[in-house]
Amino acid sequence: MKTKNWKWLLVLPLLWTALETKAQEEGPINIRAEVRFDWQYDDVDGVQNAANSGFKGRYLNIALDGKISDKFNYAYRQRLNRAHSDEGFFDATDWLWLNYQPTKNWGISAGKQVVMIGGFEYDRNPTDVYFASEYWNNIACYQLGASVTYTTNAGNNKITAQVCQSPFRKADTTHNLYAYNLFWTVSEGCYSGLHSLNASEYLHGDYIFYLALGNQFKWGDATLQIDYMERNTNVNNAFENFSVMGEFSYLIADRVNLFARATYDHCSEDFVPMADLCIFPGTELTRVGGGVEYYPLGGRGNRSIRLHAACSYTFGNNTNPAGTALDKQTFVDFGLTWRLDILNAIKQVFCSKKQCE
Length: 357
Hints:
Order of helices and strands: HEEEEEEHHEEEEEEEEEEEHH
Shape: globular
Structural class: mainly beta
Oligomer: single chain
Low-confidence stretches: 1-18
Number of helices: 5
Protein backbone atom coordinates (compact mmCIF):
# COMPACT_ATOMS: atom_id res chain seq x y z
CA MET A 1 0.00 0.00 0.00
CA LYS A 2 2.81 2.44 0.79
CA THR A 3 4.43 1.84 -2.61
CA LYS A 4 1.17 2.56 -4.42
CA ASN A 5 0.64 5.78 -2.48
CA TRP A 6 4.12 7.00 -3.43
CA LYS A 7 3.39 6.23 -7.08
CA TRP A 8 0.32 8.48 -6.89
CA LEU A 9 2.46 11.28 -5.46
CA LEU A 10 4.78 10.94 -8.44
CA VAL A 11 1.87 10.95 -10.92
CA LEU A 12 0.15 14.07 -9.54
CA PRO A 13 2.88 16.54 -10.65
CA LEU A 14 2.78 15.00 -14.13
CA LEU A 15 -1.00 15.35 -14.17
CA TRP A 16 -0.74 18.98 -13.17
CA THR A 17 1.88 19.66 -15.87
CA ALA A 18 -0.34 18.10 -18.51
CA LEU A 19 -3.37 20.11 -17.40
CA GLU A 20 -1.39 23.34 -17.28
CA THR A 21 0.00 22.74 -20.78
CA LYS A 22 -3.46 21.97 -22.11
CA ALA A 23 -4.86 25.13 -20.52
CA GLN A 24 -2.15 27.28 -22.12
CA GLU A 25 -2.71 25.75 -25.55
CA GLU A 26 -6.51 25.53 -25.65
CA GLY A 27 -7.95 27.82 -22.99
CA PRO A 28 -8.70 27.87 -19.25
CA ILE A 29 -9.69 24.70 -17.43
CA ASN A 30 -11.56 24.82 -14.13
CA ILE A 31 -11.95 21.83 -11.81
CA ARG A 32 -13.90 22.31 -8.59
CA ALA A 33 -15.15 20.14 -5.76
CA GLU A 34 -18.28 20.86 -3.70
CA VAL A 35 -18.91 19.19 -0.35
CA ARG A 36 -21.77 19.67 2.12
CA PHE A 37 -22.34 17.94 5.47
CA ASP A 38 -25.42 18.58 7.63
CA TRP A 39 -26.96 17.73 10.96
CA GLN A 40 -30.73 17.82 10.64
CA TYR A 41 -33.87 17.15 12.63
CA ASP A 42 -37.14 16.18 10.93
CA ASP A 43 -40.44 15.51 12.65
CA VAL A 44 -44.10 15.32 11.59
CA ASP A 45 -46.66 16.38 14.19
CA GLY A 46 -44.13 15.80 16.98
CA VAL A 47 -42.98 12.36 15.76
CA GLN A 48 -39.35 12.28 14.71
CA ASN A 49 -38.41 10.89 11.33
CA ALA A 50 -35.25 9.05 12.37
CA ALA A 51 -34.24 8.18 8.79
CA ASN A 52 -34.07 11.87 7.89
CA SER A 53 -32.48 13.07 11.13
CA GLY A 54 -28.92 13.13 12.41
CA PHE A 55 -25.66 13.68 10.53
CA LYS A 56 -25.96 13.52 6.74
CA GLY A 57 -23.46 13.75 3.90
CA ARG A 58 -25.64 15.72 1.52
CA TYR A 59 -23.44 16.48 -1.50
CA LEU A 60 -20.09 15.52 -2.97
CA ASN A 61 -19.76 16.98 -6.45
CA ILE A 62 -16.96 17.38 -8.97
CA ALA A 63 -17.41 20.08 -11.63
CA LEU A 64 -15.20 20.70 -14.66
CA ASP A 65 -15.50 23.24 -17.45
CA GLY A 66 -13.26 24.91 -20.00
CA LYS A 67 -12.47 25.62 -23.63
CA ILE A 68 -11.41 23.16 -26.30
CA SER A 69 -10.91 25.94 -28.85
CA ASP A 70 -12.12 29.48 -29.52
CA LYS A 71 -15.49 28.13 -30.66
CA PHE A 72 -15.96 25.03 -28.50
CA ASN A 73 -16.42 24.86 -24.72
CA TYR A 74 -17.76 22.23 -22.34
CA ALA A 75 -19.11 21.71 -18.82
CA TYR A 76 -19.40 18.63 -16.62
CA ARG A 77 -20.71 17.98 -13.11
CA GLN A 78 -20.79 14.60 -11.37
CA ARG A 79 -22.38 13.66 -8.04
CA LEU A 80 -19.95 11.26 -6.42
CA ASN A 81 -22.35 10.43 -3.57
CA ARG A 82 -25.07 9.24 -5.96
CA ALA A 83 -24.94 5.84 -7.66
CA HIS A 84 -26.09 5.24 -11.23
CA SER A 85 -28.57 2.50 -12.09
CA ASP A 86 -28.02 -0.38 -14.49
CA GLU A 87 -30.34 1.27 -17.02
CA GLY A 88 -28.74 4.72 -16.94
CA PHE A 89 -24.98 5.20 -16.67
CA PHE A 90 -25.45 8.99 -16.59
CA ASP A 91 -27.88 8.96 -13.64
CA ALA A 92 -25.28 10.52 -11.34
CA THR A 93 -24.19 13.06 -13.97
CA ASP A 94 -25.99 16.37 -13.57
CA TRP A 95 -24.74 17.74 -16.86
CA LEU A 96 -22.17 16.95 -19.51
CA TRP A 97 -22.50 19.09 -22.61
CA LEU A 98 -20.47 20.49 -25.49
CA ASN A 99 -21.22 23.98 -26.82
CA TYR A 100 -20.36 25.33 -30.26
CA GLN A 101 -20.19 29.14 -30.48
CA PRO A 102 -19.87 30.05 -34.19
CA THR A 103 -20.53 33.77 -33.51
CA LYS A 104 -20.86 36.09 -30.53
CA ASN A 105 -24.64 35.84 -30.74
CA TRP A 106 -25.31 32.16 -31.46
CA GLY A 107 -24.52 28.96 -29.55
CA ILE A 108 -25.44 25.32 -30.14
CA SER A 109 -25.21 22.81 -27.31
CA ALA A 110 -25.79 19.06 -26.94
CA GLY A 111 -25.38 16.43 -24.22
CA LYS A 112 -26.90 16.03 -20.79
CA GLN A 113 -28.34 19.41 -19.86
CA VAL A 114 -30.50 21.20 -17.33
CA VAL A 115 -34.11 21.15 -18.55
CA MET A 116 -34.73 24.82 -19.30
CA ILE A 117 -37.52 25.71 -16.86
CA GLY A 118 -37.84 29.22 -15.44
CA GLY A 119 -37.57 30.30 -11.82
CA PHE A 120 -34.76 31.19 -9.41
CA GLU A 121 -35.52 28.38 -6.96
CA TYR A 122 -35.24 25.88 -9.82
CA ASP A 123 -32.01 27.52 -11.05
CA ARG A 124 -30.12 27.22 -7.78
CA ASN A 125 -27.24 24.88 -7.16
CA PRO A 126 -28.70 22.09 -4.94
CA THR A 127 -25.90 22.66 -2.42
CA ASP A 128 -27.43 26.10 -1.79
CA VAL A 129 -30.96 24.81 -1.08
CA TYR A 130 -31.94 23.99 2.52
CA PHE A 131 -35.69 23.57 2.03
CA ALA A 132 -37.77 24.09 -1.10
CA SER A 133 -41.15 23.65 -2.74
CA GLU A 134 -42.64 20.22 -3.27
CA TYR A 135 -42.26 20.81 -7.00
CA TRP A 136 -38.49 21.38 -6.67
CA ASN A 137 -38.11 18.14 -4.72
CA ASN A 138 -39.76 16.02 -7.42
CA ILE A 139 -38.76 17.38 -10.83
CA ALA A 140 -36.17 15.34 -12.77
CA CYS A 141 -34.31 18.40 -14.01
CA TYR A 142 -31.30 16.85 -15.82
CA GLN A 143 -31.97 15.19 -19.19
CA LEU A 144 -30.25 14.40 -22.50
CA GLY A 145 -30.99 16.93 -25.20
CA ALA A 146 -29.85 19.76 -27.50
CA SER A 147 -30.40 23.51 -27.53
CA VAL A 148 -29.80 26.68 -29.53
CA THR A 149 -29.17 30.03 -27.79
CA TYR A 150 -29.30 33.57 -29.16
CA THR A 151 -27.59 36.31 -27.13
CA THR A 152 -28.10 40.00 -27.82
CA ASN A 153 -25.11 42.22 -28.55
CA ALA A 154 -25.40 43.81 -25.10
CA GLY A 155 -25.41 40.35 -23.50
CA ASN A 156 -28.31 41.09 -21.15
CA ASN A 157 -30.90 39.02 -23.02
CA LYS A 158 -30.68 35.36 -24.02
CA ILE A 159 -33.27 33.21 -25.77
CA THR A 160 -32.81 29.41 -25.69
CA ALA A 161 -34.82 26.80 -27.58
CA GLN A 162 -34.31 23.26 -26.28
CA VAL A 163 -35.48 19.75 -27.17
CA CYS A 164 -34.73 17.08 -24.57
CA GLN A 165 -36.01 13.98 -22.85
CA SER A 166 -39.16 14.64 -20.86
CA PRO A 167 -38.72 14.93 -17.07
CA PHE A 168 -41.61 12.41 -16.92
CA ARG A 169 -40.07 9.91 -19.34
CA LYS A 170 -39.99 7.05 -16.81
CA ALA A 171 -43.80 7.18 -16.54
CA ASP A 172 -44.13 5.56 -19.99
CA THR A 173 -41.66 2.71 -20.50
CA THR A 174 -42.95 1.81 -23.99
CA HIS A 175 -42.27 5.18 -25.67
CA ASN A 176 -39.62 7.88 -25.81
CA LEU A 177 -41.06 11.02 -24.24
CA TYR A 178 -39.79 14.51 -25.13
CA ALA A 179 -39.93 18.06 -23.81
CA TYR A 180 -39.86 21.29 -25.84
CA ASN A 181 -38.66 24.38 -23.97
CA LEU A 182 -38.34 28.08 -24.75
CA PHE A 183 -36.29 30.01 -22.17
CA TRP A 184 -35.64 33.75 -21.76
CA THR A 185 -32.95 35.21 -19.50
CA VAL A 186 -33.06 38.98 -18.97
CA SER A 187 -31.08 41.44 -16.84
CA GLU A 188 -31.98 45.15 -16.65
CA GLY A 189 -30.65 47.28 -13.80
CA CYS A 190 -31.85 45.88 -10.46
CA TYR A 191 -34.11 43.33 -12.21
CA SER A 192 -33.25 39.82 -13.46
CA GLY A 193 -35.66 37.33 -14.98
CA LEU A 194 -35.66 33.60 -15.75
CA HIS A 195 -38.82 32.86 -17.76
CA SER A 196 -39.93 29.87 -19.80
CA LEU A 197 -42.66 28.21 -21.83
CA ASN A 198 -42.51 24.41 -21.67
CA ALA A 199 -44.35 21.46 -23.18
CA SER A 200 -43.45 18.05 -21.71
CA GLU A 201 -44.94 14.69 -22.60
CA TYR A 202 -46.22 12.83 -19.55
CA LEU A 203 -47.60 10.06 -21.75
CA HIS A 204 -46.98 9.45 -25.44
CA GLY A 205 -48.76 12.29 -27.28
CA ASP A 206 -50.10 13.89 -24.08
CA TYR A 207 -48.49 17.11 -22.81
CA ILE A 208 -48.38 19.23 -19.71
CA PHE A 209 -47.61 22.90 -20.38
CA TYR A 210 -45.68 25.29 -18.12
CA LEU A 211 -45.54 29.04 -17.83
CA ALA A 212 -42.66 29.71 -15.41
CA LEU A 213 -41.84 33.27 -14.37
CA GLY A 214 -38.76 33.84 -12.24
CA ASN A 215 -38.20 37.39 -10.96
CA GLN A 216 -35.32 38.81 -8.94
CA PHE A 217 -34.86 42.34 -7.62
CA LYS A 218 -31.53 43.36 -6.10
CA TRP A 219 -30.96 46.59 -4.19
CA GLY A 220 -27.44 46.73 -2.76
CA ASP A 221 -27.17 43.92 -0.20
CA ALA A 222 -30.91 43.10 -0.31
CA THR A 223 -32.34 40.52 -2.74
CA LEU A 224 -35.98 39.60 -3.39
CA GLN A 225 -36.90 36.57 -5.51
CA ILE A 226 -40.47 35.72 -6.54
CA ASP A 227 -41.28 32.75 -8.79
CA TYR A 228 -44.64 31.76 -10.23
CA MET A 229 -45.20 28.52 -12.14
CA GLU A 230 -48.46 27.65 -13.88
CA ARG A 231 -48.91 24.03 -15.03
CA ASN A 232 -51.86 22.87 -17.13
CA THR A 233 -52.91 20.50 -19.91
CA ASN A 234 -55.27 22.97 -21.64
CA VAL A 235 -56.55 26.52 -21.20
CA ASN A 236 -59.65 25.29 -19.38
CA ASN A 237 -57.73 24.23 -16.26
CA ALA A 238 -55.70 27.43 -15.78
CA PHE A 239 -54.88 28.22 -12.12
CA GLU A 240 -55.74 24.66 -11.06
CA ASN A 241 -52.11 23.56 -10.76
CA PHE A 242 -49.44 26.10 -9.79
CA SER A 243 -46.61 26.93 -7.39
CA VAL A 244 -45.40 30.19 -5.87
CA MET A 245 -41.95 30.52 -4.30
CA GLY A 246 -40.43 33.58 -2.67
CA GLU A 247 -37.35 34.57 -0.71
CA PHE A 248 -35.97 37.76 0.78
CA SER A 249 -32.31 37.85 1.84
CA TYR A 250 -29.97 40.50 3.23
CA LEU A 251 -26.18 40.32 3.33
CA ILE A 252 -24.51 41.91 6.34
CA ALA A 253 -20.85 43.00 6.18
CA ASP A 254 -20.18 40.54 3.33
CA ARG A 255 -20.13 37.63 5.80
CA VAL A 256 -23.63 37.01 7.19
CA ASN A 257 -26.65 36.39 4.98
CA LEU A 258 -30.11 36.36 6.58
CA PHE A 259 -33.02 34.94 4.61
CA ALA A 260 -36.73 34.22 4.91
CA ARG A 261 -38.61 32.13 2.35
CA ALA A 262 -42.02 30.64 1.65
CA THR A 263 -43.42 28.24 -0.94
CA TYR A 264 -46.95 27.26 -1.91
CA ASP A 265 -47.90 24.26 -4.09
CA HIS A 266 -51.48 23.76 -5.26
CA CYS A 267 -53.13 21.17 -7.51
CA SER A 268 -56.90 20.90 -7.83
CA GLU A 269 -58.61 17.58 -7.20
CA ASP A 270 -60.07 17.87 -10.71
CA PHE A 271 -56.68 18.16 -12.41
CA VAL A 272 -55.90 15.46 -14.98
CA PRO A 273 -54.70 12.40 -12.98
CA MET A 274 -50.99 11.63 -13.42
CA ALA A 275 -50.50 14.59 -15.79
CA ASP A 276 -48.16 16.12 -13.20
CA LEU A 277 -45.87 13.68 -11.43
CA CYS A 278 -44.44 16.49 -9.25
CA ILE A 279 -47.63 17.77 -7.58
CA PHE A 280 -50.52 15.31 -7.25
CA PRO A 281 -54.22 16.29 -7.56
CA GLY A 282 -55.68 17.39 -4.22
CA THR A 283 -52.41 18.86 -2.93
CA GLU A 284 -52.35 22.24 -1.18
CA LEU A 285 -49.13 22.72 0.72
CA THR A 286 -47.41 25.71 2.33
CA ARG A 287 -43.85 25.84 3.64
CA VAL A 288 -42.41 28.80 5.57
CA GLY A 289 -39.06 29.32 7.23
CA GLY A 290 -35.73 31.08 7.21
CA GLY A 291 -32.15 30.91 8.28
CA VAL A 292 -28.67 32.37 8.33
CA GLU A 293 -25.48 31.73 6.36
CA TYR A 294 -22.02 32.68 7.60
CA TYR A 295 -18.98 32.99 5.32
CA PRO A 296 -15.77 33.00 7.42
CA LEU A 297 -13.71 34.20 4.43
CA GLY A 298 -16.34 36.67 3.28
CA GLY A 299 -14.25 39.71 4.04
CA ARG A 300 -12.30 38.96 0.85
CA GLY A 301 -15.41 38.19 -1.16
CA ASN A 302 -14.63 34.50 -0.76
CA ARG A 303 -17.52 32.00 -0.66
CA SER A 304 -15.37 28.87 -0.42
CA ILE A 305 -16.49 28.04 3.15
CA ARG A 306 -20.02 28.42 4.51
CA LEU A 307 -21.80 27.60 7.75
CA HIS A 308 -25.59 27.61 7.75
CA ALA A 309 -28.59 27.17 10.03
CA ALA A 310 -32.13 26.90 8.67
CA CYS A 311 -35.56 25.82 9.84
CA SER A 312 -38.97 25.44 8.20
CA TYR A 313 -42.54 24.44 9.00
CA THR A 314 -44.93 22.83 6.49
CA PHE A 315 -48.71 22.67 6.69
CA GLY A 316 -51.46 21.55 4.35
CA ASN A 317 -52.22 18.41 2.35
CA ASN A 318 -49.83 16.42 0.15
CA THR A 319 -51.53 13.58 -1.73
CA ASN A 320 -48.25 12.18 -3.05
CA PRO A 321 -47.58 9.07 -0.91
CA ALA A 322 -43.86 9.51 -1.57
CA GLY A 323 -43.93 13.28 -1.04
CA THR A 324 -41.07 15.06 0.70
CA ALA A 325 -43.03 17.90 2.35
CA LEU A 326 -45.77 16.83 4.78
CA ASP A 327 -48.45 18.44 6.92
CA LYS A 328 -47.24 19.62 10.36
CA GLN A 329 -43.61 18.95 9.44
CA THR A 330 -40.81 20.73 11.28
CA PHE A 331 -37.35 20.67 9.72
CA VAL A 332 -34.15 22.04 11.32
CA ASP A 333 -30.81 21.99 9.53
CA PHE A 334 -27.24 22.97 10.49
CA GLY A 335 -24.44 22.43 8.01
CA LEU A 336 -21.00 23.08 6.59
CA THR A 337 -20.24 23.59 2.90
CA TRP A 338 -16.89 24.06 1.25
CA ARG A 339 -15.78 24.52 -2.34
CA LEU A 340 -12.28 23.74 -3.54
CA ASP A 341 -10.51 24.90 -6.70
CA ILE A 342 -8.63 21.66 -7.39
CA LEU A 343 -6.15 23.01 -9.93
CA ASN A 344 -5.23 25.91 -7.65
CA ALA A 345 -4.73 23.45 -4.78
CA ILE A 346 -2.36 21.37 -6.92
CA LYS A 347 -0.48 24.55 -7.79
CA GLN A 348 -0.01 25.33 -4.12
CA VAL A 349 1.42 21.87 -3.47
CA PHE A 350 3.69 21.39 -6.48
CA CYS A 351 4.65 24.90 -7.59
CA SER A 352 6.77 27.48 -5.89
CA LYS A 353 5.28 30.96 -5.58
CA LYS A 354 7.62 32.31 -8.28
CA GLN A 355 6.77 29.47 -10.69
CA CYS A 356 3.01 29.90 -10.23
CA GLU A 357 2.95 33.65 -10.86
